[in-house]
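User: I've been trying to design a sequence by hand for this structure and keep getting stuck. Would you show me what you'd pick, starting by listing the structure so we're on the same page?

Assistant: Good idea, let's start from the same input. This is the structure you sent:
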């Protein structure tokens, strides 16, 4: 009798415990849902990013697949090849020979100028006598003639002829370009004047004056002027 009563008591306690457990589960589920809602609200930004794809299964699989592949090191970018430019070095030219003072243009072609009588224009591009003139500030003695004197004339006739030869030489020099030719085996006379032959169109101006009777040709016997 006592055992039956005890058995009934245990059964009643089990049923009461089961009822109590079944009554507690709704409250537990409600509590869990409330906590989940609070966490979702507090982490809404994170949840949106996750749901947008950053935390999706496909995105995670893509990242895993990408990271699983061996990454090739970046290939070095070759710099464009430029030929080495050597600094330009000016070509060395031999120094020009130093010309003596006043000797420029005393031998050559194509010389010209406007000549006056010396004393009015200074000693430059002027005529001093029938066989003497200054050019580029150098005294030039016409080597293939001998003219009558003017300042040191021995008679009035020589002075007149000397003046006529002087005028003629000035006119011939002013008539156009001329050529200066060196005198063989001698560059200067005893007074330091350059010995030159004045040419134009292949003809000596001194020979032209000798043909006109104004001067004597060099190398021939000298005739008196008086």
């Amino acid at each position: 009798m006592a055992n039956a009563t005890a058995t009934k008591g245990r059964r009643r306690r089990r049923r009461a415990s089961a009822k109590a457990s079944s009554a507690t589960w709704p409250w537990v589920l409600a509590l869990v849902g409330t906590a989940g809602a609070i966490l979702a609200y507090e982490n809404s930004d994170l949840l949106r990013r996750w749901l947008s794809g950053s935390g999706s299964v496909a995105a995670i699989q893509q990242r895993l697949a990408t990271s699983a592949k061996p990454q090739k090191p970046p290939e070095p970018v070759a710099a464009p090849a430029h030929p080495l430019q050597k600094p330009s070095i000016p070509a060395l030219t031999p120094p020009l020979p130093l010309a003596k003072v006043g000797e420029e243009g005393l031998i050559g072609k194509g010389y010209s100028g406007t000549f006056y009588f010396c004393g009015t224009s200074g000693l430059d591009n002027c005529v001093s006598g029938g066989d003497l003139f200054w050019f580029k500030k150098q005294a030039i003695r016409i080597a293939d003639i001998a003219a009558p004197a003017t300042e040191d004339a021995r008679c009035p006739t020589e002075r007149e002829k000397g003046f006529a030869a002087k005028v003629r030489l000035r006119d011939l020099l002013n008539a156009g370009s001329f050529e200066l030719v060196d005198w063989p085996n001698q560059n200067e006379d005893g007074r330091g004047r350059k010995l030159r032959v004045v040419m134009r169109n292949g003809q000596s101006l001194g020979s032209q004056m000798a043909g006109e009777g104004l001067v004597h040709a060099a190398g021939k016997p000298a005739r008196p002027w008086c």
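That's my pick for every position. To get oriented when you compare it with your attempt: The mean pLDDT is 74. The longest helix spans residues 2-42.
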